[in-house]
Each structure stands twice: as structure tokens, then as C-alpha cells.
From TrEMBL:
Positions of the HTH lacI-type domain: 2-47
Protein name: Purine nucleotide synthesis repressor
Lineage: superkingdom: Bacteria
Gene3D superfamilies named among the record's database cross-references: 3.40.50.2300, lambda repressor-like DNA-binding domains (1.10.260.40)
A GO MF label: DNA-binding transcription factor activity
Keyword DNA-binding: yes
Pfam families with a match to the protein in the record: LacI, Peripla_BP_3
Keywords: DNA-binding, Transcription, Transcription regulation
Organism encoding this protein: Fusobacterium necrogenes
SUPFAM superfamilies: lambda repressor-like DNA-binding domains, Periplasmic binding protein-like I
Length: 330
């Protein structure tokens, strides 16, 4: 388990400053990039974030709960989720709202709240449990059809299509997908969009779908190692998120697979580490911190106005072309 001293040695910051950042000390005056760097290093070293910070220290009578569908381990493995929570915390402080953070198996302890932000893919059964607690519910980073809840998400279908269109413009015919599946073992938007695109464009895809057991670097590493061992290498791979892609890169390095000369890689999220791995990751930038802050605003609007109809908001994204993907030749 990582210590403040180890984080200090990497970030070159004092242990007291690191402690204040990890404990969300609002009186600390440091740049946001510094905070993000400390949080990223803490995650990489598996730092055990103290649970004493689960509740805000404001005196507001408005209390919101944030319930994640993923586990604490998933959160540590993927900075994307931490960034969303970071945005929620900051906005809650600005709005003088008390916020408590939970994982799905903690639902029984969620009581006396004015609203719930449900992050990730929650089942209909879980959503019904939320309704017993409060009518004010926001689905964040989860798209549901015909729902009565407010929804704030990204368009994974369109993002997937834009990556695959880029691959096609590069001249690739053998395009793979590396992802994972949640508790329900159902295809997510990325996998569905990948299959639909391949069918529409008459591309072989069945043998190029690779699914790990989670959206983590370890899973990406294990999945890519198996692909190489099975001699089933495509020309390009769309990877479901950056954490998976970092593991994919590690497996490529260890097996002398040259990226992007032999294999082009494109992923999603643009976490801070994406720019600094080698080769740097081509990815899709999603403002995850804004997702968190705007999500809290949207829930507050529903609570404050007693609005009865749902609002559906999609946050735009941007393709970031770096070194892990071949450039289009004109």
C-alpha cells in the first residue's frame, strides 16, 4: 500500500501538501493540474483513500448521495471515474451542498437525501430501490431509453463510429475491439456500435472481438497477451478506454509489437496518463470533471424546481490524434 512519502518522492511535493490534496482541503491554494497529478499518482500506487472524506463539511440542509455501479477497485483502476467524482465534489462545495459517496452494495445505508446521482450502469432493480429513497435521480454516464430520470452522458455510439471511420480512412480492413462487460454480461454501446459498423461496411469482426473481465490495465494486458499468443493480430484496435489501452501497450512492448507500425491503437477518455505513455495514446477527450460538476447542477435544478419531466443531455467529445495510431495518408 502506498504512503504519502512515496507519493511525495514522485510528485516532488511535501507530504503535508499531498495530505491536504487527498483530503480535499478547500483552503489549499494549488493549481488544478497539481491536484490532478497527485490524485493520478495516488491511484497508480494503489493509495488507500480515507473514507472519512465521504461527507462534505458544509452546513447546507440539501443532501445528495452519489452511488457508483462500479467497485472501489474499478475506480482506482480508471482515473475517469475519480475525475467525475472530483467534479461533483468541487461543485457541491460551490453550491453549499452536502454530498456522500457510496458504492452499489452500500445502498441500504443511503438515507435522508434530497437526490441521487447514479454513476455508471445500474440495473432497473437498483433504480427502483433509488426511487424508494427520493424522486430526484440523475443517471450519469449511463444511457437509458424511455426513462423518467434525468440523464447526462456521452455518445459512445458516435464516438465509436468516429474512431472506426478514422481507421477506415487509414486503409485498415482488419479492425479489432478490446472491451469488457458489466454485471449483466450484455454488450455495451461501444461493442454494439463496433459490430454494427463492421456489418455495414462488410468488415470481418467475429474473430477480432476481445473481451476481458474488467475495464482495467491488467485486463488490457492479459487480453492483448492472449491475442499475440493466439497469433490473431489485426491491423488496428479500438480499445474501450485508456486504462485498458495502457495494458495493451505494455503487452505490445513485451512482445516486440511495434505501435503504430504493426498495430494502431485508439481508445477513449484521455486520462492524464494517456499523453505520457509510450507511444502516447490516440484517444477521445471527454471532460469527465465537467460531467461531474454539471451533473450536480442538473440534479439541483430538478430538486429546486420540482420539475416532473426528464432532461437528457449529451456532452460532446473530441478526437485526440497522438502517436499510437497511424496518420491518414493523403
Amino acid at each position: 500500500m502506498a504512503t504519502l512519502k512515496e507519493i511525495s518522492e514522485i510528485t516532488k511535493l511535501s507530504q503535508s501538501t499531498i495530505s491536504r490534496i487527498l483530503n480535499d482541503d478547500v483552503s489549499l491554494n494549488v493549481q488544478e493540474t497539481t491536484k490532478k497529478r497527485v490524485l493520478e499518482v495516488a491511484q497508480q500506487l494503489n493509495y488507500n483513500f480515507s473514507k472519512k472524506n465521504n461527507k462534505s463539511t458544509t452546513t447546507s440542509t440539501v443532501k445528495f448521495a452519489v452511488v457508483a455501479s462500479f467497485s472501489e477497485r474499478d475506480e482506482i483502476n480508471d482515473p475517469y471515474y475519480l475525475s467525475i467524482k472530483y467534479g461533483i465534489k468541487n461543485e457541491a462545495q460551490l453550491q453549499n451542498i452536502k454530498v456522500s459517496f457510496y458504492y452499489e452494495n452500500d445502498i441500504s445505508t443511503v438515507k435522508n437525501v434530497s437526490g441521487i446521482i447514479a454513476i455508471g450502469s445500474h440495473s432497473d432493480c437498483i433504480l427502483k430501490e433509488f426511487e424508494k429513497i427520493t424522486p430526484n435521480i440523475l443517471l450519469l454516464d449511463q444511457k437509458k431509453q424511455n426513462t423518467k430520470f434525468d440523464t447526462l452522458s456521452i455518445d459512445l455510439e458516435e464516438i465509436t463510429k468516429s474512431i472506426l471511420v478514422y481507421f477506415t480512412k487509414c486503409g485498415f480492413k482488419k479492425i479489432g475491439y478490446i472491451g469488457a462487460r458489466d454485471f449483466s454480461n450484455t454488450k455495451d454501446e461501444r461493442e454494439k456500435a463496433y459490430i454494427n459498423y463492421c456489418i455495414l461496411n462488410k468488415l470481418e469482426y467475429q474473430k477480432y472481438i476481445y473481451l476481458g473481465n474488467e475495464f482495467s490495465s491488467n485486463s488490457g494486458y492479459e487480453t492483448m497477451t492472449k491475442i499475440i499468443k493466439d497469433n490473431n493480430l489485426p491491423e488496428a484496435i479500438f480499445v474501450a478506454n485508456d486504462s485498458l489501452a495502457i495494458g495493451v501497450l505494455k503487452a505490445c512492448h513485451e512482445n516486440n509489437i511495434l505501435v503504430p507500425k504493426q498495430l494502431s491503437i485508439f481508445s477513449i477518455n484521455d486520462i492524464p496518463a494517456a499523453e505520457f505513455v509510450y507511444p502516447s495514446l490516440s484517444t477521445v477527450h471527454i471532460n469527465s470533471e465537467f460531467l461531474g460538476s454539471f451533473g450536480l447542477k442538473l440534479l439541483l435544478d430538478r430538486y429546486s424546481t420540482s420539475r416532473e419531466f426528464p432532461v437528457f443531455v449529451t456532452i460532446p467529445s473530441t478526437l485526440i490524434l497522438r502517436e499510437s495510431c497511424k496518420k491518414i495518408e493523403f
